[in-house]
């Protein structure tokens, strides 16, 4: 391969990767079309290439479909309605203003796409409950980690999960990462038989997105690099 052709190949790869990453969306309405087990396995093989400190590979993932997914969803929904979830632990109180503003913007866009007034508490609660059925996706994933590990290992789990989402998108699948499962570890572990040292970190819906659903067309803006990155030492 010549230097020129190698350059073109690298450009093509970069264009392909950029296209996949920038087209990934959080999908909250799915078609009923099933996802083949073999396809899920290929996605997991891709994601397992993620880096981890000391190559510990701390990620654990439970992939559910069919009756097992239905049983898990019913258990989590029952726990949620009974108020048996743990308090959310992923957000500080008070939330810094910059993040509070972004969350408020998300909520406005999200509920508007569903035609739900933000003051309609009952409708918002019904929509929240759709999390526990994986928004109708044929496949659900529960991501877990050994609770004894420190934050850098949780970062490794995040890298693995991002690999799942990108590989899925490259294969024509859509995803929705969902921290809403985290408060219901007890119900989840009871259904899945998780060992005592594991803790539920989040869930994820996986399937073929319903592109006609308005909620999947809601635009969620991203900050440009100059708002979150400092590039130092480069020539001007």
Characterise this structure.
It is a single chain. This protein is an alpha+beta fold and 236 residues long. The chain has a single domain (3-90, 132-217), classed as NADH Oxidase (3-Layer(aba) Sandwich). 45% of the residues lie in helices and 12% in strands. The chain contains 8 helices and 4 strands, in the order ααβαααβαβαβα. The protein has helices at 3-23, 37-47, 66-81, 97-114, 121-129, 151-170, 185-192, 225-228, and strands at residues 60-65, 139-146, 174-178, 198-207. Strands 1-2-4-3 form a 4-stranded antiparallel sheet. α2 (37-47) crosses α6 and α3 (66-81) packs antiparallel against α7. The longest helix has 21 residues, at 3-23. The two termini are 34 Å apart. 24% of the residues are buried. The mean pLDDT is 95.
Task: List the SSEs and their pairings.
Elements: H1 3-23, H2 37-47, E1 60-65, H3 66-81, H4 97-114, H5 121-129, E2 139-146, H6 151-170, E3 174-178, H7 185-192, E4 198-207, H8 225-228
Antiparallel strand pairs: 1-2, 2-4, 3-4
Helix pairs in contact: 2-6, 3-7
Keywords: Flavoprotein, FMN, Oxidoreductase
Domain Nitroreductase: 22-208
Cofactor: FMN
């Amino acid at each position: 391969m010549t230097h020129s052709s190698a350059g073109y190949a690298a450009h093509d790869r970069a264009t392909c990767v950029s296209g996949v990453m920038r087209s990934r969306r959080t999908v909250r309405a799915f078609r009923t079309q099933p996802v083949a087990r073999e396809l899920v396995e290929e996605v997991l093989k891709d994601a397992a290439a993620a880096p981890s400190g000391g190559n510990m590979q701390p990620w654990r993932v439970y992939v559910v479909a069919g009756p097992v997914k239905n049983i898990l969803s019913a258990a989590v929904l029952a726990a949620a309605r009974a108020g048996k979830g743990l308090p959310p632990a992923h957000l500080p109180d008070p939330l810094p203003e910059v993040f509070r503003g972004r969350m408020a913007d998300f909520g406005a866009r999200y509920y508007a796409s569903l035609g739900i007034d933000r003051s309609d508490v009952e409708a918002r609660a019904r929509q929240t409950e759709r999390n526990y059925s994986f928004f109708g996706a044929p496949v659900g994933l529960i991501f877990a980690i050994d609770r004894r590990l420190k934050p850098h290992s949780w970062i490794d789990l995040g890298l693995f999960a991002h690999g799942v989402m990108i590989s899925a998108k490259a294969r024509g699948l859509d995803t929705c990462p969902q921290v809403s499962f985290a408060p219901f570890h007890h119900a989840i572990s009871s259904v899945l038989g998780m060992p005592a040292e594991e803790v539920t970190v989040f869930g994820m819906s996986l399937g073929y997105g319903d592109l006609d659903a308005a909620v999947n067309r809601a635009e969620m803006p991203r900050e440009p690099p100059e708002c979150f990155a400092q590039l130092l030492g480069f020539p001007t």
